[in-house]
Every structure is written in C-alpha cells, then in structure tokens.
TrEMBL record:
InterPro entries named in the record: Glyco_trans_2-like (IPR001173), Nucleotide-diphossugar_trans (IPR029044)
Signal peptide coordinates: none
Keyword Cell membrane: no
Ranges annotated as spanning the membrane: 259-275, 282-305
Alphabetically ordered keywords of this record: Membrane, Transmembrane, Transmembrane helix
Residue ranges occupied by any Glycosyltransferase 2-like domain in the UniProt entry: 81-274
Protein's name in the database: Glycosyltransferase 2-like domain-containing protein
Entry annotated with the keyword Iron-sulfur: no
Length: 314
C-alpha cells in the first residue's frame, strides 16, 4: 500500500523542518511515498526522493480532506499531519507500519505539547495530558468516543469515500470522529498508545482564547448538521467531559475544603497527579490548571451561546 503524507500551510508558513523530518523518516518505509501540501496561494515545494504536489485550495482541513477523498483513485494510506508537529522518530514509523499493513481503516495515537518555559504553554501541556491520556482513551473504551487527534492520524480514503459527513467545520477531529463513532462496527480502528509527536502550544492568553473561539464555531457547525441525531448524545457527552467537568471539580474542591482544608489541598494535588500522569515537571501546573484554565472553557461556552454569530476568521 502506498503512503501519501497530507499537510497544510498558511501563506506565511514555511516548508519547515518538521515536515522535512517526516518526509525523511518515511523514506525508511518499504513503500512508495508522495506528499500533498495544501496552501492558500500558489507555491512550489521540492524534496529529494519524494514527489510533492502543492494544491492551492483555501478552507478548513476537513473540507480539504473531503476534496482529496472525492478524487482518490487508488487504495492508499493518508497520513494527515499538521505543519507544527515534531514527530517521535521511533513510534511514528511503527505506527505507519501498522497502517500500511492494510489491517486498519483509521488510526491515531497520542500528541503532547512541545516543552516550553511559559506559563500558558505549560497549562496547555497539562491540558494535552488530560485530553490524550485520560478523556479520549476512556471515552472510546466506554464506546462514547467521538473525537480523534486531528493533529496526526492515518486514514484509508477508499474506506470512507462518499461516506463522511459533508460539513464545513474547523473541527476535522470531531467531524471524522462522529462518523466513525456512529459506524464503528464497519471499520477496523487502531487506537494506539504510542506517543507520536509534539505540537507547538499556544504561548499567550489571547492566542488560546482565539483557539477556543474557533473550537466553539466548529462545534456549533457539527451540532447544527442535519444528521446530528446520529451522534448528538455522544457530542454532548464530549462537551460535558471536556468543557464542563471543571464545574464538578470546583464543587468538589469547595466541599472538601469546607470540611477540611488540608483534605482539600490533598484532593487538588491528587487530581494534578492524575492529570499529568506523574510528570513531576508539570505537577505545579496541574494544580494551577484546575483553578485558572476554566477561563478558557468559559470562553468556549460564551462563543457556543453566540452560535453562528461567532466569527469564522477569529
């Protein structure tokens, strides 16, 4: 089976070392490799040993993937990967080998945040642990999963051609995940424990607020889709687990601390240990996360309430 690496670049982004790294690593695989780079202007890219097609097709990642699926002629494997992902050399090759075996229709692993020194970036790193180590794996295990890691996943386009939901949304991870969740008995899914790579986190308050605003817009687009009844309950559970669980945590902190202040402090520390998977470098931020990060969930909730008044270009 041939491998096609799909990535996405804005006009101000360069053909960077992260993409060159995954192209170099993929040459170690015993298969034909090609690359498609979506851009929003006309550009040319070259890389020794790999054919690169540049497609000037502005829009969301999901719409771009649907565009490719509609035109795909061969039974191949796509690796969809964001431009800022620094892949883990050893695990990404093992992950792709599993995909190229032909046993799976779609697969994903874990993505962490690149190590940074800033306050916000370390909170994002903590949030990645919570999402990729706890919420997502547990929800899929309980047959309630609806989200995949959109930063890096493989998919066999022939298995999904003319089947995925026709939604224009910022959240390809939810749009693809919703279809898979509703039709999982028809597909072979690899939910890998491999740490596949690291993404560059938001490093400032404003950037993270804008990201949550885009997420809210994407969620609203998926929730408004005419076929939403097929996945609506799981979508709402996803929102409850990720965007509203802090309310329960705050109530627990308040109640336990009211009964015994020291017990409340121990509870906060225990939750921090659980979230960060005993990554002691992030333990302090695991504590602060519980108290500070709900601000960004409130931003998301506020923009959900705005519905289609939320600005696409935020």
């Amino acid at each position: 089976m041939n491998l096609k690496i799909i990535t996405y670049m804005r006009s101000n982004e360069a053909f960077n070392d992260n993409i060159k790294k995954i192209l170099t690593l993929s040459l170690k695989l015993n298969t034909k490799i090609s690359c498609i780079i979506f851009t929003d202007n006309d550009r040319k890219f070259e890389f020794d040993g790999i054919k690169i097609d540049s497609i000037n097709f502005p829009g969301t990642k999901y719409i771009r993937l649907l565009y490719l699926f509609e035109r795909e002629q061969e039974d191949c494997l796509y690796l969809s990967i964001d431009n800022d992902i620094n892949v883990n050399d050893e695990t990404i090759l093992k992950f792709l080998e599993k995909g190229l075996s032909g046993k799976y229709d779609i697969g994903w692993g874990r993505i962490y945040a690149q190590s940074q020194s800033g306050f916000i970036s370390n909170l994002v790193a903590t949030d990645k642990h919570l999402s990729h180590d706890l919420i997502r794996p547990l929800s899929w295990k309980l047959n309630m999963g609806i989200s995949i890691p959109g930063q890096c996943f493989f998919i066999r386009p022939k298995a999904f051609q003319d089947k995925l939901y026709q939604i224009d949304t910022f959240l390809d991870d939810l749009a693809i995940g919703a279809y898979i969740s509703n039709n999982r008995k028809d597909y072979s899914i690899l939910r890998s424990s491999f740490l596949l790579g690291y993404e560059k986190p938001n490093t400032n308050f404003g950037g993270l607020c804008r990201q949550r605003k885009r997420w809210a817009k994407g969620f609203y687009q998926i929730f408004s889709y005419p076929k939403r009844k097929e996945y609506q309950s799981k979508l709402l559970l996803h929102a409850a687990f990720y965007h509203f669980s802090w309310i329960v945590n705050w109530l627990m902190i308040g109640y336990i601390s009211y009964c015994n202040l020291y017990a409340g402090m121990i509870y906060i520390l225990a939750i921090a240990l659980l979230m960060t998977r005993k990554d002691y470098k992030l333990l302090f931020y695991g504590v602060i996360y519980q108290l500070f990060f709900p601000i960004f969930h409130i931003v998301w909730i506020f923009n959900i309430l705005r519905g289609d008044k939320n600005d696409d270009n935020a």
